[in-house]
Design brief:
Elements (H helix, E strand, L loop, with lengths): L7 H17 L4 H20 L10 H13 L4 H20 L26 H8 L7 H16 L3 H4 L7 E2 L4 E5 L5 E5 L2 H18 L20 H14 L8 H14 L4 H8 L15 H11 L1 H7 L3
Helix pairs in contact: 1-2, 2-4, 5-9, 6-8, 6-10, 10-11
Length: 312
């Protein structure tokens, strides 16, 4: 498909939608960027198809777009995300009275097989945790970061946004801002606390740069907040060093956190709260469960807590 200058009218409505989901829906910047990418590709396709107004989009236009994406090699999951973006966008156009009906109503998403998440065994996680050389500044940072990731089940996008003021060491809780700016509070164990505090005292204070670092917890060697990609690369490096053959990512650590708690006997609702799957407002930190119960579940069933209690 040749790239052309997109009709300003099409871009105008994309911009209005992006502003809407960012400001009024409160979606994360990562999600907003995904919507923006999808819709820009969509408008380029419409321009090449000679579609000048969104009211001219038909079900056949949409099917042609899906076939086009399929030819580009889009995976079913990516096609599903694109169709979801189109549904939301066209519903926005209807709500704003720019179009009369939503042409995506009869557009079916591709059938997706439920993927079984990659989960590490407890020994595999322990082996990864042992790989960073804590005698070096960056090794200590990496150990603290991976310990913290496994202790909390935090998403990569959330971990790199955690600030020092989000940590409550006396209670051993961290405040996390998740999808849609939803806030939750998650417990972490003694071992994670020890490594994070050691990193703060011995390493972060030296990495920090005025005007660059802010209060973000995990910093790169140049003092900038660590990125999601950097966390991904660091974790994969230590997984390879540990001889783990599975495709390890921060999400693998998150899946493993949940699986190990559940296998140990933790309550499903408590794990869902810690993962941020419950809808928790900033004024009601817990909808169903109190902090003491979550802390007790974490202390009783998280493998790293059992290790520390055994004196290992």
């Amino acid at each position: 498909m040749e790239t052309q200058t997109v009709n300003p009218y099409l871009l105008l409505w994309v911009d209005r939608f992006i502003n809407f989901i960012r400001l009024e829906e409160g979606l994360s910047e990562h999600t907003v960027r995904a919507y923006s990418f999808d819709l820009l590709r969509y408008t380029e396709f419409l321009e090449n198809e000679g579609v000048q107004k969104f009211s001219d989009v038909s079900i056949q236009t949409l099917l042609n777009f899906v076939f086009y994406l399929n030819d580009l090699g889009y995976a079913p999951a990516s096609l599903g995300r694109m169709i979801s973006s189109l549904r939301s966008f066209h519903q926005f156009l209807v709500d704003e009275a720019e179009t009369v009906q939503n042409p995506t109503e009869n557009l079916d998403a591709p059938k997706l097989r439920r993927k079984i998440p990659v989960v590490l065994s407890v020994p595999q996680v322990m082996s990864i945790l042992e790989q960073p050389d804590v005698a070096t500044p960056l090794g200590l940072r990496d150990r603290a970061m991976i310990e913290f990731g496994y202790a909390t089940g935090i998403r990569a996008s959330e971990l790199v946004r955690v600030t020092q003021k989000d940590l409550f060491f006396e209670e051993r809780f961290v405040r996390i801002f998740g999808k849609g700016s939803k806030e939750r509070v998650v417990p972490f164990g003694r071992i994670a606390q020890e490594f994070v505090q050691k990193y703060q005292n011995e390493v972060r204070s030296k990495l920090s740069r005025a005007g660059i670092s802010g209060d973000v917890l995990f910093l790169s060697r140049n003092g900038r907040p660590l990125t999601r990609m950097a966390y991904f690369v660091i974790l994969k490096k230590y997984a390879a060093m540990a001889g783990v053959k599975k495709n390890v990512s921060p999400h693998t650590l998150r899946h493993s956190f949940a699986t190990h708690l559940l296998e140990g006997g933790a309550d499903l609702r408590a794990v869902q709260e810690m993962l941020g799957h419950a809808d928790i407002s900033t004024t009601q930190i817990y909808t169903h469960l109190d902090r003491d119960y979550l802390k007790e579940v974490h202390r009783t069933f998280h493998p790293r807590e059992k290790v520390s209690e055994d004196g290992a």
